Amino acid sequence: MKLLPQPTAQEIEHLDKLKLVSKTHLPPLKQVSVEANCTKYTNMGDPQKIHPVPDVKGRPTAPLVPNGSSKFSERVDPVQHDYAPFRRTIPPTVAKPPKKRSCCCKCICWTISLLILLLVVIATAAGTLYLVFQPKVPEYSVDRLKISDLQLNLDMSLYAKFDVKITAYNPNDKIGIFYEKGSHLSVWYSNTKLCQGLLPKFYQGHRNRTILNVTLTGQTQYGSTLMAALQEQQQTGRIPLDLKVDVPVSIKLGKLKLRKVRIFGRCMLVVDSLSANNKISIKASSCKFRLKL
User: Fold this and answer.
1) Considering the entire predicted model, what is its pTM?
2) d(C-alpha 234, C-alpha 147), whole Å
3) Of the ranges 55-69, 86-100, 247-261, which is most confident?
């Protein structure tokens, strides 16, 4: 077995130069490996031989810290400890618990709800009753007016006595009317009350027509002035009079009797004379009535 020839001095010198170049000119942090060079010796008479070259150690990487500069750990006090950087912590937001309603607020809400419910029930009942019974306001008319007495007293007061015939008609098919106590009927001339009276207490059935004869009496101060005005108006043949009615009534729905209500009415009359015990003609009559609960 033949030994391979040793590298010459020239080859070793060449390798040393390569090591020096690799240490000074290659960029830092980049490690380059140098492959082993093999030298071929060929001879016309000998077979081809390959001589191994010793491996060149990898070039060390450039130092991370330049020469002449001290490390950070050397400049810092060895007793000093490293602390994490300060970070401001934001406190977590806590959701506020819902406010509890006070007892007073709950009572008010319940009261309002009950009132609304009560109003709805009353309105529904009233609407149902109206559709079933179809209530109508009674009708009244003045058929006759007679002056029994109209004279001046010694104290200059005016005494008047009227007899009035009134017709009351109930147009309802399912509603009866009770005329209660406390009614009031009066005759006026130019905002001065001449006489007054009361309507009788009675019951009026369905579609019933009732004739009422009412006597009205009264006494008025400053009768001389009033009498002179009436006589002057009588010469024209048209004397305006107002007949005012205030009657408390109770409504009967079937067998049910409801609470009292009041009927207010006003009849504007025009007569031709105010002579006592004479026939008086009613030239015009206009009546209006309303129901007050």
Assistant:
1) 0.57
2) 14
3) 247-261
